[in-house]
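#random but structural
TW: two for the price of one
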Amino acid sequence: MKRIVALAVLLLFALSTTAFAGNVGKDCTFKGKKLQGKVQIVTSFPDIKVQVVSSFPDLKVQKVTSFPDSCGKWQIVDSFPDFKIQLVDSFPDIKIQYVDSFPGVP
């Protein structure tokens, strides 16, 4: 009985943590921030916590060196970003997959 209860609690915890991820709107925004443009990777005080995955992303991201002017195109910068991200292994706000073409909301 204890094993079943422990398994149920673990399952509910796993489902609840993934339920909060993936809040990317069809208009390519997260909490009012457009997910395009100049991005700074930080270790603290991010605007968005991001997990890089190889499948089932919330957003497909293409790294570009100039003109990050459409959904999912990110130019990595060291200063003056449009928004800041922190790369995490668990409890992300959104999950991204790096792609070479066709960035955006899948």
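TW: number two ↓
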Amino acid sequence: MNNPMVQKLEELVGKGKVLSSEAELLCYSYDSTPLVSHKPDAVVRVASEEDLGLVLEFAAREGLPVTPRGSGTGLSGGSVPVKAGIVLLTTGMDRIIDVDENDLSVVVEPGVITANIHSAVEAKGLFYPPDPGSMKISTIGGNVAENAGGLRGLKYGITGDYLLSLDTYLIDGSRVSYGTKCVKDVAGYNLTKFMAGTEGTIGIFSKISLKLIPKPQTKKTFLALYDDIIDAARTVSAIISRKVIPSTLELMDSVTIECVEDHVKIGLPRDVDALLLIETDGHPEVVREEAAVIEEACLANKARTLRVAKDLKESEELFTARRNALSSLARVKPTTILEDVTVPRPAIPEMMATIREAAQKYAITIGTFGHAGDGNLHPTCLTDERNKEEIHRVEEAYEVIFAKAISLGGTISGEHGTGITKAKYLPKMVGPKAIEVMQRIKKAFDPQGRLNPGKIFLKNAE
């Protein structure tokens, strides 16, 4: 391709690291967000910090937009190159640099697959809790950028809770380090925690240090079945109010159950309105005590049946079914729109009722699943983007759902980020002054608005 920009990039980092054919550019024009696509001018797969600095310095000289990208599993358009320019692909920086058993930490590059971190540390009897649903594909750099959660977020927290330090490249190609491996560090502003969830709009990570904890000794997994999803939703608050925090507390509605069973065929009943997948872990005596409380709470809130996984194999089958919720739903219609709203746990029944009412009012199919233990729900619409009239109804339904979440004291995104798709809802949630403050922060780091432009704000700070 006779493109001067591409030729200069190839001279800087090597020809094999620069992608520029039409087919290649198309592959990096979208992420896992439907209805959003923009082609870049070039894609650079960096393999080292040196590559990273060189590309950013070149982009600074040429005034080019830069969009960082990991595996492209994002669900709010965060890695879509809205203003073209360079997609900076970090999947080639995929080393696990050090697992420190003495200090309970791990140092990794941004392109490491999240599940590979789990495997590496668990082999040493350690535990990295954050487990986003896409963990077998997603990269840790993307997890930090979106402050990803996961099934274990209720008990153990999310990605930002495990960040110790970050090496970060700014848009001008300069490098800055935030934080230390110390558990306690209050020197200056806590920029390490701040960077989690900035969606690639402030800096690009080159090295990430994460806190680890000891691996839980044992666990017990429950499957609770309900004839009414409202009873399932009430059970969530009932368990928490009994002072028990399960490691996992997941909800699936009837639409999702049907699709999952069609896909993975593990024997989930098709005649229930909802199920809860619950797990408690830790010391054997604690697990025994918590299991008794969980059982009492489920049965007190009209669980039809409560089953305990008889062994590790059955437990893993149930969690595999849950992790396949999105892919199972996506098999039904050409377009799957997965959203995420979070509300206070006592408000889950009202939120679930609103989701169902919206689906009925606008004559669309929505399957809902999610991390009910922390109030995070994923209303997922099965539709067809070619049907413009139906897509309009889908948008109207989500307007209702997001407005309800905000009115209940919740948020428009618990883990997917704002990106492109949620930008129009953010002012309604936080107000104009908060938006102004965010834009001032963005401008301090990126005065020209070249790093991942077009994200979070309706009009990117310039």
